[in-house]
Amino acid sequence: MESEKPQIAVYDTKPYDREYLSKAAGVEDLDLRFHEFRLDAATAFAAEGARAVCVFVNDHVRRPTLESLAERGVGMVALRCAGFNNVELDVAKELGIAVSRVPSYSPHAVAEHTIALILTLNRKTHRAYNRVRELNFALNGLVGFDLYAKIAGIVGTGKIGRIAAQILKGFGMRVLAFDPFADHEWAREKGIEYVEISTLFKESDVISLHTPLTPETDHIIGPESIAMMKPGVMLINVSRGRLVDTTALIAGLKRGHIGGVALDVYEEEEGVFFEDLSGIVLQDDELARLLSFPNVLITSHQAFLTEEALREISRVTVENLRRFANGQPLLEGTAV
Ligand code: NAD
After folding, report:
1. Integer Cα distance of 22 and 27 in angstroms
2. For residue 244, what are the contacts with CB-CB under 8 A and spacing of at least 6?
C-alpha cells in the first residue's frame, strides 16, 4: 500500500546521512526515500511522488533539474548543508519551489578541522604515523615551525572564521582578518586585526579561507594573490573548492613559493570526494598532481563530520521538511 506520509526524496546519501536523518525523522510523519545517487536533471525522476527533495553540496539544482522537479509537484529543496551555490535560487523562486539550508550546525566542527589540518601539515603527523608503523623512527623531513608569534590571516570572519581565528589566537599567533562586513567590536574584544585583503596576503604565514563561494570570492586565491604572499606561506581551504585556482596553486607549489597546502574542498571534487575510488584510475590530473606533493594534505570534505554536526543538520532539515509538509513557516533564518 502507498504510504500516506509525505514522501521526501533524499539524494546523495551515505550510511551516516541515513542513520542521522532516520533518527531525526522517527517513524511518525515523514517517509524518507534514500538514494545514493546525486540529484541532477537525469535523476530528478526519482522524486516522482515526493513533496520535497533533500540534497547535499554536490547535487546539481539548476534550471533543468528544478523544472523537472516542479513538473513532478516537488515544492521544496532542503539543503542539508550551509552553502547554497549549487542551487539556482532565482529559478526556484520563479517555479515556486521553497529552498532551505542549515546555516549553522556546528561551526566548531569546521573550525576545529581547520586547526587539525594546520597542525598536521605543519608538524607532519600524517607522515610520522606512517613511518613509525613501518618501524622507521627517523625524523628527517619532519621539521615544522612554531605557530606561536607567527601571523595567521583569516579571510571571512563569519561563524567558522571567527572560531578559527580565536583558536589560532590561543596559540599566541597574531591574527589578521579580512571581511567586507567586519565586526570591529568582536575584533577588539578578541585581539584580532582587520586589514585590507592585500595586507593579509602579504603578511600572513598561514592563510585560511572561510568565505562562501560568490562571484567576488571565486578564485580569490589565484596567480595575483599568490604572487603577493610570503614565500613559504601555508594555505588552508575548508570552504569551497572554487575559492582556489588549482592551476595557480600547483604552479606556486612547484616554484616552492607556497610552503604547504591543506584542502578539505577542491574545485573538481564532485564525483570524487565522498566516494571510494581506490580501485579506479583517477582521471583528474590536477588532483593527481596535488596528491604527489609532500607538502599537500587533502581531506575529502569532512570538516563538518562530527556527531554534533550530523545531529544538528538532521534536526533542522527534518523539522523544515515537516513544517513544509504541514504548511507551516520554515525555521527562522533557514529559508534561502
Ligand atoms: P558565514 O556566512 O557565517 O560567514 C561567511 C563570512 O564570509 C561572512 O562574514 C561574510 O561577510 C564573509 N564574506 C563574504 N564575502 C567575502 C569576501 N569577498 N571576502 C571575505 N569575506 C567575505 O558562513 P560560515 O558558517 O562561517 O561558513 C563559511 C563557509 O564554510 C561556507 O560558506 C561554506 O562554504 C563553508 N563550509 C564548509 C564545510 C566543510 O565541511 N568543509 C562545512 C560548512 C561550511
Report:
1. 8
2. 209, 219, 220, 221, 222, 235, 237, 263, 267
**Residues labelled as active-site residues:** 240, 269, 301
- Domains of the chain from N-terminus onward: 7-105+307-325 (3.40.50.720), 107-298 (3.40.50.720)
User: How is residue 328 written as a grid cell?
Assistant: 507551516
Interval between CA 160 and ligand 1 midpoint (Å): 7
By DSSP bridging, strand 52-55 and strand 151-155 are unpaired
**Is the Cβ atom of 181 under 6 angstroms away from ligand 1?**
yes
Pocket lining: 240 vs ligand 1, CB cutoff 6 Å: yes
- Interacting residues of 308 by C-beta distance below 8 A, sequence separation 6+: 105, 106, 108, 109
Q: 232-243: per-residue pLDDT in tens?
A: 999 999 999 999
The rounded Å distance from CA 71 to ligand 1 centre is: 33
Query: What pLDDT, in 10s, does the model give residues 11-64?
Result: 999 999 999 999 998 867 899 999 999 999 999 999 999 999 999 999 999 999
* pTM for the model: 0.91
How far apart are the CA of 42 and the centre of ligand 1, in A? Answer: 30
Q: Round to whole Å and give the CA distance between 63 and 112.
A: 36
Any atom of ligand 1 within 6 Å of the Cβ of 300: no
Counting DSSP H helices and E strands in the chain, the numbers are 12, 12
